[in-house]
Write a structure and sequence with these properties.
Blueprint (H helix, E strand, L loop, with lengths): L19 H8 L8 E4 L6 H8 L3 E6 L9 E2 L14 E4 L8 H14 L5 E7 L18 E6 L21 E6 L4 E3 L16 E3 L8 H11 L6
Parallel strand pairs: 1-2, 1-4, 2-3, 4-5
Antiparallel strand pairs: 5-7, 6-7, 8-9
Helix pairs in contact: 1-2
């Protein structure tokens, strides 16, 4: 069963526990130990617990209290921020009707990348990047870094009737980082160039290994699960 399986009543605010192995799949490719991570849709703490077990520091928030300790009760999409500083955002966001809420989470997360955050990682459907209307988040977004395809399907609705669950949806972690690309401004006194776009140059790489570096190494070594 997938999150949007029509034979099941939709859970309020899309509160679906994230299986531990799903977060571990992200950590297998990206080292978050040195980052202060904000989990803005912490729910019952499923992702938070795995991140902390890996050695990461995590600040938590959600729009509602589900019994797990939160540093703040805020709406991530409103632009509010937690009381503690953070350098990365990792969450399994609510999708909402026709995935519109998930898109709003991307918009809010990308704004934080322009104000100091170094990484945004969201768990979304594997085909989320295939819609033409979302190209601005992926192919046309300089900050889009990687897609980590899960090689197993997550079970969001545990069965109690003894029948083995058969989830139908594939998911992936989508990762964004502040763009390393700079637009080379054309010289107003230079002769006009043929059409074809602006020249892009790589900016100076940061001192720490980013998701691009880590995922590139994983891809070259043949590790599964990265596209």
């Amino acid at each position: 069963m997938g999150k949007h399986e029509i034979s099941y009543v939709r859970v309020e605010r899309d509160l679906y526990p994230t299986p531990r192995w799903v977060t571990e799949a992200l950590l297998a490719h990206i080292n978050l130990n040195r980052l202060m991570i904000w989990e803005p849709a912490a729910g019952k703490g499923d992702i938070v617990k795995v991140l902390r077990d890996s050695g990461a520091r995590v600040v938590t928030s959600d729009i509602a209290d589900y019994g797990f300790f939160l540093d703040a009760l805020i709406d991530f999409t409103s632009g509010q921020v937690p009381p503690a500083p953070f350098t990365a955002i990792v969450t399994n966001p609510p999708f909402g009707h026709r995935n519109t809420l998930a898109e709003t989470f991307i918009v809010a997360g990308l704004k934080h990348l322009t104000h100091g955050a170094s990484l945004l990682a969201l768990l979304l459907p594997a085909d989320f990047d295939s819609a033409n209307g979302r190209r601005r988040f992926f192919g046309e977004c300089p900050a889009f870094t990687a897609k980590i395809q899960l090689t197993r399907r997550a079970v969001w609705f545990p069965r109690t009737d003894g029948v083995r669950a058969a989830p139908k949806e594939n998911h992936a972690w989508y990762v964004w980082e502040p763009s390393r690309l700079r637009v080379k401004r054309p010289n107003p006194e230079a002769p006009p160039r043929p059409e074809g776009g602006l020249v892009l140059k790589k900016s100076t790489p940061p001192r720490h290994r980013s998701a691009r570096d880590i995922l590139g190494s994983a891809a070259r070594s043949g590790e599964p699960g990265t596209t």
